[in-house]
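Issue 218. Parser rejects a valid record. Input:
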Amino acid sequence: MKPILFAVAAGLCWGIGEVCTRSALHAGKVGPIGAITVRSLVAIPLLLLVFWLMTRGVGGIKVEPSLAQADGGTWTKLILGSGLVAGGLAMIFFYMGLSFGEVSVVKPIAFSIAPAVGVTLGWLVLGETMDARKVIALGLILSGVLVLTMKGAAPAAARDDGHRGAERDPGAGPGPTESAEAARPGMR
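Output the parser choked on:
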């Protein structure tokens, strides 16, 4: 039960955090790399405190081994895979996506590809089991994201002018979508 509770807590934190990030990025006063830098600088002291506590067994959660016990292969995986690829490049790509798009599109894509790649590489590289249940689950996740992120024709009632089938008068000024985009210079 603990793994599920921690996963739910992480999902809630990421969801709230990315909505705040997207809002900050689209205000046009900070860029994606600045946002990542602030995120990292705020997270590092908390991570160091929790790591320090867990290496001492505080909190009753599984005790962390000391980093001094890690060998060269472990350090290589941590630095290149976890640090450079996941901690650096993935955050850069994700925040760039948020700076140009909607969190309701960018986040589901990124967070569905991640488990698909993780499950596949876990099977191919780490020798984890692959069964029909996992294949079906991944197919459902990816299908759900495809449906969520597909752009379809807007219903007639949702058009800019609110009139079915009527053309908007070009001299009437920008519609709601155009006004929102104009308020975010450089963030298209």
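Fixed in the parser; the record now loads. Residues 153-188 have pLDDT under 50 and may be disordered.
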